[in-house]
Amino acid sequence: MSLLEVRGLTKVYGALTALDKADLTVGEHEFHGLIGPNGSGKSTLLKCVAGAEIATAGTVMLSGRDITRTPPPERTRAGLSLKFQITAVLPQLSVYDNVLLAVQAQASMASLLFSRSRRALDERVMEMLSQFHLEPRRDELAGVLSHGQQQWLEIAMALAREPKLLLLDEPTAGMSHQERRATGELLQPIKQRCSLLIVEHDLDFIKDICDGLTVLDQGQVVASGPTLEVQNSDRVKEAYLADA
Fold this sequence. Notes:
The structure is a single chain. The protein is an alpha/beta fold. It has one domain: P-loop containing nucleotide triphosphate hydrolases (Rossmann fold). Helix content is 36%, strand content 26%. The protein has helices at 42-50, 72-78, 95-104, 115-131, 147-159, 177-187, 203-209, 227-231, 234-241; strands at 2-13, 16-27, 31-35, 57-62, 65-66, 80-83, 165-169, 195-199, 212-217, 220-226. Strands 6-7-8-3-9-10 form a six-stranded mixed sheet, with helices on both faces. β9 (212-217) and β10 (220-226) form a beta hairpin.
């Protein structure tokens, strides 16, 4: 069953057409990758899905609901969560408090007044820290974490909102090979509870974790489908995979 359906998505900036009638489908509990050369429209598509940009034309449907022009906070409540390429952790707060704030954003003000609710939030925070191997660093300032660990912290914060669909924009940028491999292993368990749409340049990373793959070039979809099928397309191999 489809969770996200993007149809005819177009984004125009003056004389520049960043997206040109792009189609994309992400199923429930599916990991789907977006690849293509620089400037191909990958991040623009992601932003139009998240609401950071509003499409010039086309539709974005989430769980059968049209969210094409819905404000970002409403999209979040509908089940979207986005992590941009540049980390947005709060460096002067502890690792624990960064995740706690993300969890609290989902709780009602009334529920935060009761100690029982606070204890429940603590369990949720510790679950997220443990999942991303950050529990031993819980009391340290987020700013002292390595680049890779800060990326993991922000993914944990995005997942703390319990989204139906997590959007990731180049989460392994700047990571070592070992950190990229670890990131893939850390992401695999989340498939049990949400789908993932990810923009990446590391094709080995994408091929290892993604069920589906969409290739963009100059704002247009070149190929889309199961990862193995798309990566074996002669057109994709010749024009994109070697350079993406």
